[in-house]
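Data deposition worksheet. Section B asks for the primary sequence of the deposited chain exactly as it was used as input, without tags or linkers unless they were present during the calculation. Section C holds the resulting structure in token form. Section D is free text for depositor observations; keep each observation to a single sentence. Incomplete worksheets are returned to the depositor.
Section A, Depositor: J.P.
Section B:
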Amino acid sequence: MKKLLLLFMIGIFGLSCSQQTPKVLKTNFSKEALLQKVEDEEGKTVTIQQILDQHKGKVLVLDFWAGWCRDCLKALPKAKELEDNNKNIDFVFLSLDRSKEGFDKSLERFEMKDKENYWFASGWKNDFNNYIDLNWIPRYMVIDQKSAIAKYYAISPEDPDIQATIDKLLK
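Section C:
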């Protein structure tokens, strides 16, 4: 009986802790999502809308990660390769580290200080992350030149749809 209960608990835990493709692949952000605040490295608060406005007219890749996330750290070399292979587009890194101190340490430890970084000081559950169905990291999104979502859901920088979407947008 104990073995059955243990297997059941492992099964439930495994199902609830895996990345699942959202049922609806969104192409635009809600007003509430765009008003979500994040902090930059200096602690200055900006909204997602302000970040998108800074990159309007360019293709933008959003990379959701955290220094404590083993999958994110495994993906970092391929994320860097994606960035290196696409010098003509912008990349923004959105951290889900648990504290400002953790965010700062992660940027230093993983040599991210030369990139555009923001931190969700509000934590994982917020209007932006809830709207985009963020249930696991790493996660990647491609935003087009008009700030619409061109690629809603990718879990690896090696996902061929990321590069295909970038190439299509740059034509």
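Section D:
The domain at 28-170 is CATH 3.40.30.10 (Glutaredoxin).
The first helix runs from residue 2 to 16.
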